[in-house]
Specification:
The complex is a heterodimer of chains A (about 100) and B (about 525).
Chain A: H1 6-20, H2 46-58, H3 64-73, H4 81-92, H5 94-100
Chain B: E1 4-9, H1 14-22, H2 27-35, E2 37-42, H3 49-58, H4 62-65, E3 71-73, E4 81-83, H5 94-100, E5 105-110, E6 121-125, H6 130-136, H7 142-149, H8 155-158, H9 162-170, H10 177-201, E7 206-211, H11 213-225, H12 236-262, E8 267-271, E9 275-283, H13 285-291, E10 327-329, E11 336-339, H14 355-369, E12 380-385, H15 386-389, E13 401-405, E14 420-431, E15 433-439, E16 447-448, E17 452-453, H16 457-464, E18 469-470, H17 484-489, E19 494-495, H18 509-522
Parallel strand pairs in B: 1-7, 1-8, 2-16, 2-17, 5-6, 5-7, 18-19
Antiparallel strand pairs in B: 2-15, 3-4, 8-15, 9-14, 10-11, 11-13, 12-13
Helix pairs in contact in B: 2-12, 9-11, 10-12, 11-12
Classes of the chains: A mainly alpha (about 100), B alpha/beta (about 525).
Chain lengths: ~100, ~525
């Protein structure tokens, strides 16, 4: 499995987020500090679709429920793109690491 | 070579359809029955949409395909719950089986199909919100293409609207039934337009489509549909709402009539994943578990104000104090009870060595102690262990006990003031007896057959297409659908076993959970 860099993952996730928001204002700059819910207007139910989409895109099962539960339990004010990338980077390359090992 | 269409009517039941055929609301279905064979189609246990449809498309029982309910634990050891999707399906689907044999397939609006399987053909999943329909469908760009090609196509109508779906679950509070029914009529028409467009531009040999408004309408409007509980002197409001509901079934019938023409030479199987019936009471199962000493509510878990109100949400992850709870029901629709075994998800629970005795005792107490206070009748009429309901390699994901109630209703998992309450209004609930109608080459005209099983649909579909039937499918070809002469000329061919499906790597999840938590702690996101 190919090792993915954070920049590669960021580019793919931003494309997915824009695709999900067909009314997306293209002038909005999405950064690692952008909040999925407050800034991009996603609703809590969108987390389910986002989870499936990420798993499909990266062809890998992700412990997304645990990620969301922790965010709720720790009372994060929002989930930023940076949070999401941290989560993805911690998981996506595990297979590649196992292969490399 | 024969081709096959699965025309799915989620939750359809003869209790409703018989009357609609007799009274002229569904003339095409009546004609279909005359031109083909029909009978009851028995669902899985419990008769619930995700495990049932997944059994239909895989030909495997839930313990083998791995979908036990709408929600399930990531792994036996995990405390995380996920909504089931295609990654939880551990068995090969019919769509893939026919691909392996050189045929193309397409499926529309099936549950547990997100992300869409990458089949040779097309797949638009069900139970997906509109924002994600594009990225979860297959092949890439298919939704955008449909939007460009079908006049009036709107993914917001096609896809699931969770707020609207919640109305079907909540069962009350709808001011305008007619608008809600119209929404479902528009949805079904658009799904059918999608089928027509895809079949005309990217033809397949096996196509499947599910119309899930049948289930939604029956949940919410059962009192207006079930002739057994029709009022003797119906109010104008009743008459208007019933008329609107019948318009939905009229629409389904029109779509069926069109399908009968478009797929004239195909085998068409009209199937439901389960039947329906009337639920009149609510069992607050966690209240009984609390009173019986098995469950402690977490601090702050609120009691419901209105006992007749249905579930405000489908699962209550944080409702229980898991350090003081040995048994709990997690979701309403699965009617399942989980036993907290020490060392499995946490440090508290029953001793693993005591599991068998504990479970037997719990089952016996449920059967003996949960009774109608007026009549003494048992409320729980069936209790299945996970070995009985979910035998197979995925069994450890399933509830330890699965209950069937005397009215076939869903348990409530909420905290309330009592154990039992009557519903204010009739509420449609799932029943094990679904429907099967079949028409096509070799199928007997006007035949009524004995009940068959969801498990039998996959082998029967492959037989109808003249394809090999994998040896490990658990069902059988429904030969009684066919003329004897046809059977003598077309022998069922058992082939190799199904192709291995890369299952969700559940065994690794605990490590990944621990690892992700450690990494998140290192990153400063967790204490």
């Amino acid at each position: 499995m190919e090792y993915l860099t954070r920049d590669q993952v960021r580019a793919q996730v931003i494309d997915l987020l824009k695709s999900a928001r067909e009314d997306f204002d293209s002038s909005i700059q999405i950064t690692d500090q952008t909040g999925l819910f407050h800034d991009l207007g996603f609703e809590s139910i969108d987390a389910i679709g986002l989870s499936s989409t990420l798993e499909g895109t990266f062809d890998q099962t992700l412990p997304f429920p645990e990620f969301m539960n922790r965010a709720k339990r720790e009372q994060w004010k929002d989930i930023t793109l940076g949070n999401l990338l941290d989560f993805l980077m911690a998981n996506l390359n595990r297979s590649a690491e196992r292969v490399a090992a | 070579m024969s081709q096959c269409l699965i025309f799915g009517l989620d939750g359809a039941t003869f209790t409703i359809l018989d009357g609609l055929m007799e009274t002229g609301v569904m003339p095409n279905l009546k004609r279909f029955a005359e031109e083909g064979a029909h009978g009851k189609l028995m669902s899985v246990k419990p008769p619930l949409t995700p495990p049932a449809w997944t059994t239909l498309v895989t030909g495997r029982t839930p313990g083998h395909h791995g979908v036990c309910g709408f929600f399930q634990y990531n792994s036996p050891e995990s405390s995380s719950i996920q909504i089931v999707g295609s990654r939880q399906v551990r068995a090969e689907t019919m769509w893939a089986m026919v691909n392996r044999q050189g045929k193309r397939s397409g499926c529309l609006n099936f549950v547990a199909h997100n992300p869409a399987p990458k089949i040779d053909g097309w797949a638009l999943p069900g139970w997906v919100s509109w924002r994600w329909m594009k990225s979860l469908s297959h092949p890439a760009g298919v939704v955008e293409k449909l939007a460009a090609e079908i006049p009036g196509f709107d993914v917001k109508i096609l896809a699931m609207d969770y707020e609207e779906e919640r109305k079907a679950i909540v069962g009350s509070g709808i001011d305008d039934h007619e608008a809600w029914i119209q929404l479902h009529i528009s949805r079904e028409k658009q799904w059918f337009e999608t089928l027509k467009r895809l079949q005309s531009t990217q033809p397949v040999d096996l196509a499947g489509i599910v119309f899930d408004g049948v289930d939604k309408l029956q949940h919410l409007l059962w009192g207006y549909l079930d002739p057994r509980i029709a009022p003797s002197n119906p109010s104008p409001e009743y008459q208007r709402t019933r008329a609107a509901a019948l318009e939905y079934f009229r629409t389904i019938d029109l779509l069926l009539g069109e399908a009968m023409e478009l797929f004239r030479d195909w085998t068409i199987l009209i199937c439901s994943d389960h039947g329906f019936t009337n639920s009149w009471e609510i069992l607050f199962i966690n209240m009984w578990l609390e009173q019986a000493g098995y469950l402690t509510w977490a601090a702050g878990t609120e009691k419901t104000e209105n006992p007749a109100e249905m579930e405000p949400s489908l699962y209550h992850l944080n409702a229980f104090d898991m350090d003081k709870t040995t048994a709990y029901a997690l979701t309403t629709s699965s009617n399942g009870i989980y036993i907290n075994v020490k060392g499995k998800k946490g440090d508290f629970g029953i001793d693993p060595a005591d599991y068998g005795r504990f479970r037997d005792e719990l089952a016996a107490r449920i059967a003996n102690e949960i009774r109608d206070p007026a009549t003494g009748e048992s409320i729980v009429t069936g209790i299945a262990t996970r070995e009985e309901a979910f035998h197979g390699p995925a069994m450890d994901l399933a509830p330890d006990l699965t209950l069937q109630l005397r009215d076939f209703g869903f348990v409530s998992v909420r905290r309330s003031n009592g154990i039992l309450a009557n519903r204010e209004n009739p509420f449609g609930t799932h029943h094990p007896e679904g429907i099967l109608f079949a028409r096509g080459p070799g199928i007997r005209a006007g035949a009524k057959i004995e009940p068959t099983r969801l498990l039998d649909i996959a082998p029967t579909t492959l037989f109808a297409m003249g394809l090999d039937i994998p040896a490990d499918l658990e069902g059988r070809v429904i030969e009684e659908l066919y003329e004897p002469a046809y059977l003598s000329e077309h022998a069922a061919k058992r082939g190799a076993t199904t192709a291995a499906v890369q299952a969700d790597t559940t065994a690794e999840v605990p490590d990944e959970d621990a690892d992700i938590l450690a990494k998140m702690q290192a990153l400063g996101y967790l204490e």
